[in-house]
Amino acid sequence: MADVLVCVENLHVRFRTYAGVVHAVNGVSFDIRRGETFGLVGETGCGKSVTGLSLLRLVPPPGEIAAGRILFNGEDLLAKSEAEMQRIRGRRIAMVFQDPAATLNPVFSVGEQIMGIIRHHQAVGRDGARRRAMEMLEAVGLPEPERLLRAYPHELSGGMQQRVMIAMALSSGAELLIADEPTTALDVTIQAQILALLVELQRSRRLSILLITHNLGVVAETCERVGVLYAGHLVEVGRTPDVFQAMKHPYTQALLAAIPRPGSHGQPLPAIPGTVPSGLERIPGCAFHPRCPFVMDVCRAEKPPLVSVGEEHTVACYLYPQGDCHLHGARA
Amino acid sequence: MRRWEYVIRRLALAVLVLVSVSVITFLIARVVPSDPAAAWVGPRPTPEQIAQARRELGLDKPLYVQYLRYVRALLRGDLGVSVKTHQPILRDLKTYLPATMELVLFGMLMAITIGIPLGVLSGAKRNGLLDHSSRLVAIAGVSMPTFWLGLLLQLLFFGKLGWLPLGGRVDRSISLYNPVQQITGFYLVDTVLTGNWVALKDSLVHLILPAFTLATYAIGLTIRMTRSTMIEVLEEKYIVAARAAGLPERTILFRLALKNAIIPTLTVLGLSFVYSLTGAILVEVIFSWPGLGTYVTNAILNVDFPVIMAVTLVVTVFYVFINLFLDLLQAALDPRVTLG
Ligand SMILES: Nc1ncnc2c1ncn2[C@@H]1O[C@H](COP(=O)(O)OP(=O)(O)OP(=O)(O)O)[C@@H](O)[C@H]1O
Ligand SMILES: [Mg+2]
To answer: Is A329 in the pocket of ligand 1 (CB under 6 A)?
Structure first.
């Protein structure tokens, strides 16, 4: 498949803490195609951020990637040296985060920060970096880039800060942008503007975006395909309309139950009876079985594989015929 | 300009502080049971001589008149005369103050060049080998008594190894054959200005032990302070973002994180600069360093109050200006700080 940019196979991430080993990501597989926005949704603590950071090999200690492969343009990122990874970060894979006020360094001006990144990755002098920085700031819809370069982060609004972050992330030509809840900390109207900007940049630069969010409205508006994560397990993957209108997994159904229709703004996740497992104890079988209304004996015994339930639509659940079983995207 | 308003306000405050300090030292000098007139005259004075000295020194006038005279003289730049040596104090200070400043500044330079990198690296690699050893250095530096450390270093580097001189600013042979021409009073500067390289090397060698002894406390403090703020800063999201942007670890530690972490360290360094001015007293005595400390020690032993008062005022001036400088520096480093 030539159009696959990233292929994550059987990713396992764990944290060795004093309380015990936390299994944050348990055998997640998905792929991201060139020029698409892939959404990753799930409740808080389900492993979305850890998955995103894994793609940059930046899982913070005591976390570690325990198993799996992450193919980027066909090359396994997990086999690369730290020096090679440093050349990939920012240059080929970039990331923006939830809280732009905390993600910008408070004691450096916008210009120092963005030009520092440009000059590190590209063979340009001061003037070249300056020109490039102004182009990027304009590309993300910021007026008066000249003046902005001299401004400090605390002088900007939240929306402007996030635009600056996006400009910094994309300043060195990344092909993949990991956006971890990029709009969660912003006002609703600003959220819509930032999402529109991401969609526009994705189209104009043929960018791939991994959009991490717990806001289903955001997914419905921006993502071609979506993966639903539960307690470190990917339970359902498919095209956004299919997943939203013909959701198969009981967890996805519960997630979507309280939402009237896709396209509604800012819906928080509805409450689902039971509690999310902490990751400390390993649940045998399907991770969702203690909360699942359709639980069967087999669910308690063995982890369900992803099965195909439609074109490009797979689900990890024993409710569906198990015949045509495959790991989605694992055959790249 | 807001900054100028602020500076002027702080300077006005500084004048207030100086006036209070001068009143207090003046009163203490008059309350202490020692007779400056007797000291002025010398051993075995006759009553007539003492009465004469009291008139000369103005001690027969009421207190407030004495104080006003003292202040008027101060405003003219006249710090008075030593009751013991009868030398003008200002002239003494011109030779002793640069000696101490050279010692203290060199010590501060050591604290910065040793303390900050060690603090950064041990904060970055917490619980590593470097972290454990530099924490040991830090605790030793903060808790080791100065006089003991000074004697220990003399024993080792002069007594056992013979690598460094015992004390003084330059060797006697230098004073005889390549004397340092006094321009600023800072030997490192004066020797460079006059191209006296032999004396430059010799004064550097003489500086190492006393400056290090004086700086151990500041070095320890700087390591600990930098380490703990670095640990905090390295948890910040902008550091994760800098890693995600592919910036090298060196840039992240020594530029992006350090500029945030260094602000509290600079405050501590500035204050230990002022404390070093008084800490120098002990170090100068141990290393026979002809500076302010030696000067004021002799003054204290001789109950030479004009000298004690003058030195107190000088230290106060430094204290006030260093504090002002630190606040301005903090505002310059951190754009979120507003002066006022
Ligand atoms: N530093 C850490 N130490 C120990 N466990 C951690 C650490 N960071 C994450 N985890 C574990 O990994 C799991 C997944 O965390 P992650 O941050 O990926 O969640 P998330 O889906 O991004 O949640 P949110 O929506 O709140 O951002 C958490 O449940 C937590 O138990
Ligand atoms: Mg998260």
So the answer is: no
Q: Which position has the higher pLDDT, B299 or B278?
A: B299
Total domains in the fold of chain B: 1
Per residue in A172-205, pLDDT tens? 989 999 999 999 888 888 999 999 999 999 999 9
Measure CA of the first residue to CA of the last residue in chain A; give whole Å: 6
Examine residue B239 and state whether it is found in any structural domain, yes or no: yes
Residue in A87, A102, A168 closest to B245 by CB: A168
Q: Is residue B57 part of a domain?
A: no
Residue B78 lies in a domain: no
Nearest ligand to the CA atom of A41: 1
User: Does A49 contact ligand 1 (Cβ within 6 A)?
Assistant: yes
Q: pLDDT tens digit string along B73-129?
A: 888 888 888 888 889 999 999 989 999 999 999 999 999 999 999 999 999 988 888
Do the Cβ atoms of A97 and B335 come within 8 Å?
Answer: no
Half-sphere exposure of B286 (CA within 13 A, CB side): 24
Evaluate whether A216 touches A90 at the Cβ level (below 8 Å). no
Within 13 A of B208's CA, how many CA atoms are on the CB side?
13
Residues of chain B in contact with residue A86, where contact means CB-CB under 8 angstroms, are 246, 248
Instruction: Supply the residue whose CA is at minimum distance from atom 28 of ligand 1.
Output: A45
Q: What is the CATH number of the domain that holds B141?
A: 1.10.3720.10
Distance CA B112, CA B108 (A): 6
Cβ–Cβ below 8 Å for A103 and B237: yes
- Selecting from B244, B333, B336 the residue whose C-beta is nearest the C-beta of A94 gives B244
CA-nearest of A55, A94, A73 to A172 is: A94
Does the beta carbon of A275 lie inside 6 Å of ligand 1? no
By residue range, what is the domain housing residue B115?
89-333
Compute the distance between CA of residue B337 and CA of residue B284 in angstroms, rounded to an integer: 39
Q: Whose CA is nearest to atom 24 of ligand 1?
A: A44
* Residues forming beta bridges with residue A71, ordered by sequence position: A7, A76
Question: How is chain B split among helix, strand and coil, in percent rounded to 5?
Answer: 75, 0, 20
By the CB < 8 Å criterion, does A108 face chain B?
yes
What is the distance between the alpha carbons of residues A58 and A42, in angstroms, rounded to a whole number?
21
Q: Identify whether B54 is part of a domain.
A: no
